[in-house]
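Records of this kind hold a single protein each, on a pair of labelled lines. With that in mind, the following record should read easily:
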Amino acid sequence: MKPDEDRYIYTDGIDYSETADSSVWGTEEKETAKLLETSVSGGKWLNLCAGDGRFNNRLLEKAETVIASDIDENALEKLVRVTPAKYKNKLNTKILNVVETFPFGNQTFDGIFCVGTLHLFPKTIFYKILNEMKRVMKADGKIIIDFATDIKRSFPDGSLWVVKNEPSYSLIEARQFLEKSFEGFRLEIYFGKSEPESVTLNDRKYVFTCNFIVLEANNLQK
């Protein structure tokens, strides 16, 4: 699917059928993996902006059922392909544009998981997405996200790739923003650093580095 940054569609035109089984978006950060291990126990989960499945098998291992959603159907097809047979009966997929109303009823999910995405959106769009997340989660549900900060995408010639409309948060600014955004939730906040990692998207290659926040937000508004 082609990107359209003016409409907040941050895809990359990748043919996922031509990629390896591992995610094109790099390795799984240990902080996020640990939180999935300790904080998910059964229930129905929404993997929002799931992409080609980074972390999805970990979520399937711990949850009762998972709906993996993304705007890119091709990415979801790869996600299904790389899902172990023992988990496929727990998995459903849904094409979803995250900046539009979610196609789910109120209080559908015990938990929502979203990584590698929400830092891309301007604050007004972020709040719109968050309101939908709150709407479809149960009264005692939880949200687990990661949020990248201090992002740097460096091409081999030293130039930088900057995503259009993407805010530029420092670690401190992002923490303050998230604490304000999740007011009324009980928060657990962890910090991590992504070491330089080479990313190849079609004919575009760059090195990605960032700091990041992993956040678990438990709903207190029962």
Q: What stands out?
A: The longest strand covers residues 137-154. The chain has one domain: 15-147+162-193+213-219.
